User: Fold these one by one.
Assistant:
Number 1:
Amino acid sequence: MSGNSPFGTFFLPGPTEVRPEVLQSMLQPMLPHRGAAFEELFARIQRGLKPIFRTQRPVYVSSSSATGLMEAAIRCARPGAILCLVNGAFSERFANIAQSCGRDATVVGGEWSAPVSLDAVEQALKARPYAALTVVHSETSTGVLTDIQALTELAHRYDCAVLVDSVTGLAGVPVETDAWNLDFVLTGSQKALALPPGLAFGVASEKFIAEAGQAEGRGLYYDLVEFEQYVHKNQTPNTPALSLLYATAVQGERIAKESIERRWDRHTRMMEHTHSWVHELRQRVGAEFGVYAPFDACTSTVTAVTVPIGVSSDAIVKGVARRGFVIGGGYGKLKANTFRIGHMGDHTMEGLDAVLEATAETIEEVLDL
Ligand SMILES: *Cc1c(COP(=O)(O)O)cnc(C)c1O
């Protein structure tokens, strides 16, 4: 991508396209990260992020990608077994992290085409006690959205904490951290927040962080107990990725200006528009293109489009690139038979129309219509 392309050409489901003024904000001089100027910057970031998380709790800022805070969630969950809900590539990663941190982890689910059912979760919770469960709110590999409010209600009846990866949920679809009593919810900078990659943000409930002290082997870099201590001083435990913090402050203010509710609505409209486009495309070209996610569990931020047998999703992605737009290929086991359009972050309906038109043209070319 050339640095001179106009905004509205990059529809990867992460990293997402960043507004020029947000990029520009990173070109500020360094600051000592212990001192008043930094604390002011950090407080500004908190004012931006808290309404996005819908929380009164402080927002931890980790200089890592989102996977870092997934690991932190596992390391800091109170002692006990962990139930991992798997319905896609990223929820599978969460389960792998639990196992690789030496936790007693049980997987429930496994099907990619829908959320893990509450029945299956309840069966598992009845069978034995779990300290926590892991869930991916918006599965970026499939476009499937899980109802984390209902899941949390259920889990809390069994005294099981809920660790939520909302990496492509937060700032694109409603997340009510406080009202839904989420124990820990995390995201990365480079998805629906439309910041460059390199930061992760998370919120822990008071109960979760109080119990985290009992977790042994939390390590150092991802010890949320440390994050909690520093966040109250408007600081981070270690040297933060300062340039990205400048961008976060500016983006938080941009999002406040739009309002989080309007941002959610814009994402809903982008999702609906993309889905209608898929259905019209299928009719027009007479080939089995479809939306992978079930109609009642779609995320607003990304659509995985299934392609008919015999059509190469890779050829579609490459043809779209020749027209000046970036979309995503399939992910994991859906690599060959889906492509993905990331309609999240700061994209507009007009921008989305342009990439969909380029994609339709490409498909007609690939099908030789
Ligand atoms: C992108 C993504 C991640 C991983 O994020 P990194 O920033 O690459 O570590 C985790 N979960 C979901 C749902 C994602 O979309």
Note: The longest helix spans residues 260-285.
Number 2:
Amino acid sequence: MQDLPSPLPTSGWAAPGAGALLEISLGAIAANYGMLNARTGGATCAAVVKADAYGLGAQQVAPVLEKAGAKVFFVAHLEEGVRLRAHVSPTALIMVLHGPMPGTEQDFTRHGLWPVLNSMEQIAGWRAHARRVGSPLPAAIQLDTGMSRFGLSDADVGVLAADSTLLAGIATRLVMSHLACADTPDHPANAMQRARLLSMATRLPAAPLALSASSGIFLGPDYHLDLVRPGAALYGLTPDATRPNPLHPTVRLRARIVQVRTIGAGDGVGYGLTWRASGPRRIATLGIGYADGFLRHGADGGSAWLDDRRLPILGRISMDSTTIDVTDVPQAVLDATTHVDMIGPHHGVDDVARCAGTIGYEVLTALGSRFHRAYLPQAA
Ligand SMILES: *Cc1c(COP(=O)(O)O)cnc(C)c1O
């Protein structure tokens, strides 16, 4: 049997062993946090780092957010909270949005995590746990104000209001809900959900209130309440697609050119030969495909970029490769080029999403683990 090869060599940016380079700017993430924090005035600006900080790496991102001032972090699942605990200071608050599944309550206290209680069952589980522990336990309570996804219904709140023993041993530290239409500023659901949160909260123990994620922050101070929970905006996604994005882009994705060829009139490109040349063309094959999270739908109207030159994607995106048109790139420039931008200064995450018929959230969280990743440090 042959020896296994040693790890593939990488030499800085060249990273010849990887098909693509993902550059993540920790400085931009910190600056976005600072901007959101300043914008929300007296409200606490938490940081949502679920889904591995939207695919960018919670281990690297969370400490930077903490240094930028974040003291409260949100994740979706218990296991994400357990992993995050090691990367933030012991005083940082970690809230778990999905709350405790039955039997996991002691894992929350063991790892210093606060649950978001979403149902009467989760409240009962947490109450029983507090009784076992023998001291009150902090938690957030989530209310369903109209999205029908997480949280207590109006009827549940009525039951709690009628029997104070149901919240015995639960120290309610936050009452929260989530907006369904915050990216559409004039949607009537926004004001309706806010009014419902305020009214439902009056029947619960007094606690700080929270409603807004990224887009909600941009609905204005009425929506900031006591705490805001941005995720997407920290990572540079636009909070309102109808206006210029005020946030800094945080990622740049460069794909390696593996091969360049010339094709002639009538030649097809890629699976299904869905694209055919009407004349001579130069085609570059890139080492990035849908297995890297570069969504297959993005082929139509999608492109790579070389500085400000748009290089259209031709044919279908394969699992590990994508073909682009480099006919208009001067040969000398092409000879000197090893990588092209898939996400970059001229084509951000939201642009890639638009081409793929999806949202920036999906593009970011899908970005693959096969890339060579580089974290650009914060400016000193
Ligand atoms: C994901 C999530 C957030 C963050 O949302 P963004 O739109 O990414 O800012 C905030 N709150 C809850 C409940 C969430 O599920």
Note: The longest helix spans residues 26-39.
